[in-house]
Each structure stands twice: as structure tokens, then as C-alpha cells.
């Protein structure tokens, strides 16, 4: 993604190509859409500016029709679910997902520095710079693995750079989650980019998502310092044979420690291949490494594109919430992998709704911890066995949308607490009409 200016186009194509953003997008009053900065078979990416804050963002526009025709509905659902639950300094942030009847828009962090690929294609990096980017990559990949997410397509083209030239992982379209692991404990979908794919994927006998990401990280590190691929050939089958046998040679300028480290990363045997924990303790890796510390809770008050300090939801917000428009016809269960919930309309004041939720907690004595923030309240079991979050958004002068988030998709303590304790106290607050928005992901 090349570096962009913030020039705003006044007329954007309104063609039948569903990946294009039409003039309609500017009517929502939320983003000024600028130049096209990247495109693929199913999506186009634009630079844009948040009208309210002035913040630069990237907007990926995807055609619903193309998604359905290409059989990619599950991929898009999963990408949204994965990106919404990830919060790491070296992973591109997904701010919100918006939709019309024909398109889905991913509003994401804008990486001003463009693709890492473009930078390394101009010349190989020094060992110190290669190490710096590899440290950032491993920190983010290890974080993904800790949350049961496996990227499966790590390569310099999917690694972006921000204005400070720090690395950001992008494109989770081929990612897998723990729920996709078969009873044998392995993943079986064949995917990835040929030059970066691990040998066990080529064997077609199943693979560990953690191990294949480590392999791809090794290929990325080699490319950064060597300036070329470790496994490459114009004949794809010859290249696959080299990968399967692990046939590569480090250039003479690589230090002995880096040479040794790369052979551990590019070990064709996934069982003996270096692990993320072992990477973190390796002498070559540890040089100058500072642990990246950040705060991210599994379920807390989150900005899913709706600002609690904002008085009203706008048209795009309503589309995203509504079961009659926007996402739900295609992405009816796009919620976080580890989070489910419900939404409903209410004519009651937000303060009154929060008060009713707090009353439930009071009945549980000291077994429930209550945390309030803006127009939201979180109930958490003292022993951490459940979390229920209620957030409220103003829809009109008379109506609000109440969004309930419950930890864990499967039945468990959080669902039982919500169904048995909280929901009965709120059911009479639901606004009843033909237009009532009620969504559930149970």
C-alpha cells in the first residue's frame, strides 16, 4: 500500500463492480473517501478520512454478490470475527464494519508506510533491522496463537508499516481458528502463498496452525536479510520439492547465529521446529528485544464503531445493527469468536436500564463485580466464571439500542446468568413494534 496524500475525490465510480465505493458512501457523512490504494479479485481498498476526528483510515470495500458467487461467505464472516477480537500494537485494527444492501465496508487502521514488501524489494535489510521487524512479527503472531487464531498467509505483502515504520499484520482472510481443528488435532485446508507455505501443508495430511505460521515467519526473516526467497523456482513443482526437502542456503553475509536460527525456523519436521517460546529465548532474537506490553481484555467495553459519547447513531450505525438491512442477511453471526450476545430496542432512559442491570448484581451479594463506563455496565463473577456487558446507544430522541455481550459462544455460566438473572429484569423494557430490532447470536 503506497504512501498516500489525503486528497478527497469528489466523484467515485458507481459501477457494477461491487468492490468500488460509489457516491453513496459519502452521503453517510462519516468518511471522506480518497484515492484507491489497493485492489484484489474481491475487494478494493481506499484511503479515507474520518470527518469527525480527521483520522486517516483504510476502507476495504467488498461486493456481497462476489462473496456469495465466490463461495467466500464463511471467509468474510471469519475475517470479521477474528479482526474484531484482536487488539495488538502490531496488528491492523478493525474500527468498524459497515454495510449497504450490496457492499460490506471494513474500516481499518491506515498504514501510511505501505507494504513491507515494497520496502525490502528496494534492497535487503541489515541484520539489526531484520531482527527488529521479526521481533514485532513474532510478538503479534504469538498473541494471535494465544487467542486461537492462525494467520496462515504471513508474507511481506501482508505486513504493513505505520507512520513510525513499525510493522502491522494485515489480511486475516485465510486465517483459521480453533473451531476449525478436526478431531485429529490438525487443520486440513490447503491455503497460503506457494513460496511461504510449510512442507506439512504440501503433504496434505493435516498440519498445526502454530507450526505453519512459525515456518512462514522464518521465510519472511530470510527475505528481509537476504533480499530474496529461500525457496524459489520458475517451476512450481520444483519449488515445492525444495520446500518439502528444506533445500536452502544462507548467503555469506548472514551471521552464524542468524544462520543457525533460520535453520531452526525452517525445519521441515514440525515436531522439532522451533516454538514461539523457544524463539523468545533464542540469543539472536533476544538482542535488543523489549517485551511489548499492552492491555486487552477478552470482553470489556469495546468501540465496535459506535461511540458511547455520541448522542445518536447515524445511518450507517442503524444499517449495521439492523436485521433488515446491512450485514445480517450475509453475516448473521459475525460476532466475536469468544463472544455472543443480543440487541434490542428500548424506550427507557439509558440510566434506568443500567440501574436495572445493577440491581441484578446487588441481589447476588458480593459474587458479582460491577464496572460502569459511560453508557455501559459490566457484570463479572468474582471467580471470573462469567462476564456480561450491556452497552447503550441513542437511536432517536425516544429510542435506544441495548447491546448485550456475553463471554463464550457455547452454553455456560455467562449464558445462564444472562438468561436466568439479567434478561428477566430487562424483558419488560423492550420496545414492541413491527420495526423492533432484535438480534441474537445464541
UniProtKB/TrEMBL annotation:
Its EC number is 2.7.11.1
Which coenzymes or cofactors are required? Mn(2+)
- Identify the SUPFAM superfamilies for this entry: Protein kinase-like (PK-like) (SSF56112)
All copies of domain NAF, residue ranges: 308-332
Q: Does the keyword field hold Lyase?
A: no
Similarity field = Belongs to the protein kinase superfamily. CAMK Ser/Thr protein kinase family. SNF1 subfamily.
Give the protein name, as stated in the record.
non-specific serine/threonine protein kinase
* Natural source organism: Acer saccharum
The major lineage groups are: Eukaryota, Viridiplantae, Streptophyta, Embryophyta, Tracheophyta
